[in-house]
Design brief:
Number of strands: 12
Order of helices and strands: HHHHHHHHEEHEEHEHEEHEEHHEEE
Largest sheet: 5 strands, antiparallel
Low-confidence stretches: 331-336
Structural class: alpha+beta
Shape: elongated
Strand order of the largest sheet: 8-9-12-11-10
Radius of gyration: 34 Å
Strand content: 15-25%
Helix content: 40-55%
Number of helices: 14
Mean pLDDT: 83
């Protein structure tokens, strides 16, 4: 072994170490997420501000680390080729390439990846300044590579700065369906994911509490009567109107009323002084948009208006969240009958407020209506009047029997598929 070989081997080991170090940093930052970053902030680790800046510039950091990694690997491979050629000519050069490739895979890729899974946070906190130094040093190379790649992309007919999404919505839906079929997702998990996609295309009118079901009080009602509404109905906030529900003055919070009643004589109480400003929306607003607005403005209740400005319904932040995660129960909720219950084989008891789309999902039917969103409205449309309890009508291959009805409202319906010979 010549006197030059030992330093060359040491250089190879150094470049392999640097390659592994760059890869370790890259994978460690890649595994960092908002939750882990928040944990580091709470622990008040050293250089947390610098870590945040590196996370914000992660694309540039990764590109710099990648360039540094390639240069290290190339240097290690180049030196090994020289050593191999000096000792064995062409065959020695081939053997050197094979050995170096294996070493790069083991020490430059596989081992750093395994370590990053276990020690990502330690790596980031210990090597923060070193990572920043690499990013600063290799930023000029990063910009040069970006420029050259853009030129080649445009020359080949592509678009400059075109970023294709990692996965499309259709691909994600397919992946979710495959996961469910493979048993990787249970019914509840699949339901939540499915609800998220449905949430994007739904409208406020589909999930709001309709006008006839709104619990509200008139501004001039006796204070004791108003106060009793909260425990009786199980709400912590209710709308207050004047003369007519189309004239909503504001939202009354139970805690505000209690505080006022403890400091003010009943006869001197003016509800207008504690009413919260009402938030209005319209029935055809997308639920996704309303959800974002209510969260941004910290609003819990919204009054839904129709096209003429009249009160059409009411919707709460809880209603919107339930569209995604399902029913949320609190200490005030009473046990309720499910909207759609199978009472016999092929025979269902359905809440009149159940959506037509939900009924179709359960019954595997194709009921449609341009005028109504609920099955109760759909049945009223079939009768062309308000039906009474016990009446039935056959349509679309189903028999709809009114099992419970109130004034101008269908409360519950029995639905059963009928054979062709049963249809008159």
């Amino acid at each position: 072994m010549s006197s030059d070989t030992v330093p060359q081997i040491l250089l190879i080991l150094l470049f392999l170490f640097l390659s592994g170090l760059f890869t370790l940093i890259k994978f460690s930052f890649g595994s960092m997420n908002d939750i882990r970053l928040e944990n580091l902030c709470e622990e008040n680790v050293k250089n947390i501000d610098l870590i945040k800046r590196l996370m914000e510039k992660q694309d540039r950091l990764n590109s710099s680390l990648l360039i540094a990694d390639y240069l290290s690997n190339s240097a290690a491979a180049g030196i090994s080729i020289i050593i191999g050629y000096n000792y064995g000519g062409t065959i020695g050069m081939v053997v050197a390439i094979l050995i170096t490739t294996i070493l790069i895979l083991i020490f430059g890729e596989i081992t750093p990846y395994a370590l990053s899974i276990q020690y990502s946070e330690k790596v980031i906190t210990k090597l923060t300044k070193f990572s920043n130094l690499i990013m600063v040093l290799f930023t000029p190379f990063h910009k040069l590579v970006q420029l050259l790649s853009s030129i080649f992309v445009v020359a080949l007919g592509g678009k400059k700065n075109y970023n294709e999404p990692t996965i499309t919505e259709d691909e994600l839906i397919s992946a979710v369906n495959l996961s469910r079929e493979a048993g990787l997702l249970d019914v509840n998990e699949f339901g939540i994911i499915e609800n998220i996609f449905n949430f994007k295309g739904s409208y406020v009118r589909e999930i709001m509490t309709p006008r006839m079901d709104i619990v509200a009080v008139e501004i001039n009602d006796p204070i004791d009567d108003i106060a009793n509404v909260f425990p009786e109905e199980g709400y912590s906030r209710i709308p207050v109107y004047e003369d007519d529900l189309d004239n909503v003055l504001g939202i009354l919070h139970a805690k505000d009323l209690i505080a006022l009643m403890t400091t003010t004589n009943k006869d001197d109480i003016d509800l207008r002084t504690i009413l919260r400003q009402p938030f209005f929306t319209f029935e055809y607003q997308k639920t996704q948009t309303l959800f974002a607005e209510m969260r941004l403005n910290r609003i819990s209740t919204a009054i839904v208006l129709d096209e003429y400005g009249g009160t059409e319904g009411l919707i709460t932040l809880e209603d919107l969240i339930e569209e995604i995660v399902g029913e949320i129960e609190d200490e005030y909720d009473e046990e309720e009958i499910d909207d759609i219950v199978e009472i016999e084989n092929g025979e269902f008891s359905v809440n009149g407020m159940a959506r037509i789309s939900d009924v179709n999902d359960v019954l595997d039917s194709d009921l449609e209506s341009d005028e109504f969103d609920t099955i109760g409205g759909f049945v009223i449309g079939l009768f062309d009047r308000f039906p009474n309890r016990g009446e039935y009508i056959i349509s679309d291959g189903y028999k709809f029997t009114i099992t419970e009805a109130e004034d101008k409202r269908v409360v519950r319906i029995k639905i059963k598929a009928v054979d062709e010979d049963e249809i008159e």
